[in-house]
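Minimal example, chain plus fe (ii) ion.
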Amino acid sequence: MLDLLITRATLPDGRSNMSVAVQAGRITEVTQGLQAPAHEIVDAQGMLLSSHFVDPHFHMDATLSYGLPRVNQSGTLLEGIALWGELKPLLTQEALVERALAYCDGAVAKGLLAIRSHVDVCDPRLLAVDALLEVKKQVAPYIELQLVAFPQDGVLRGPRGPQQHLDTLKRALDKGVDVVGGIPHFERTMADGALSVKLLCELAAERGLPVDMHCDESDDPHSRHVETLAFETQRLGLQGRVTGSHLTSMHSMDNYYVSKLIPLMAEAQLHVVANPLINITLQGRHDSYPKRRGMTRVPELLAAGINVAFGHDCVMDPWYALGSGDMLEVAHMGLHVGQMTSQTAMRQCFDAVTVNAARVMGLQGYGLQAGCKADFVLLQARDPVEAIRLRATRLQVFKAGRLIAQTPAATSSLNLPGRPAQTSWMHGRPAGT
Ligand code: FE2
């Protein structure tokens, strides 16, 4: 007997009336119309069953700290960085753990079961590192949490010299942080930025670790660190293991230069993470009008065969007062900012917070095929575009075939003469779609 059988589900690829059979935490069969005895049977009633959401870029050490020790009055990146500097000495491990766990509770409710979080490693106490390693252990039964050693203040900008932050970053890796991070555009000079990319990629190669750098997160059209990142990736044989996050300067770069850069990135098999909610709010702040959007060139990178995912980046922290762990909100913003309104592009936005993000994180057993982990979410929508449009309710969230969260369908009762008693905004679609 099966542990779980989902029937009458629609899958993101458009197949309908699909059954998904689960045994011992794994999907054993995905086929049309299967009926079989199971301990639990869920009738999806034509709703969309998707692999769980994946956030490939987040800052869990800062999340839910909004208002501590004060709010960011201007809402700018620079005031956010200053605020984080004020908050850091006041952090306690207990409070960090508590906030991160509360975030993870909300993430589960939103079907978000894998998160790559950067963690600041410039604090010699490594308080946030210890806290998030503890959180990683505690949430492991329901969330795959990957940590990136992120030198927020610049790896070569330690007050006691260039070795200081590099040493704490290495200590963080020794403790079990999974990925080497960086922030080359924040180093003192372009040359130091390039040197940081080289040193950090060499460190990753030595230790057999992936790399994920905040890279060129500015409006500077001359920022060139992603070029260096692609070069070092190839030089050190790190193809497929390196991610360039943000890459907002690509928005402002000269088109001719980008026509050379994108093929270099493809050759190095870089992954790219854009963070639409944060890029659109923090970039372009020195512009009057026209104001740049600041998001990297997502459609063009995808067209070159580069794996592009969307991250949430921030939720209620010194940089961003909003957010709710909803990767469909992230996809919704990415779609708008990137003008990704073609039928193909809208579906690519759904992929950017599911399958593409899973590739960034290198998740094993992710997907809706036999043999994959039974980690999925049933949405109150009939296809990926409707899911993005409605930021669809996560009706049921499953981990290893076990129901771990559920939310009632979003349906409003109406009291209008001559009109239906209920509405849920799930209107008809054009024939044949
Ligand atoms: Fe970030």
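The chain has two domains: 2-46+367-423, 53-361. Residues 57, 59, 118, 214, 313 surround fe (ii) ion (CB under 6 Å).
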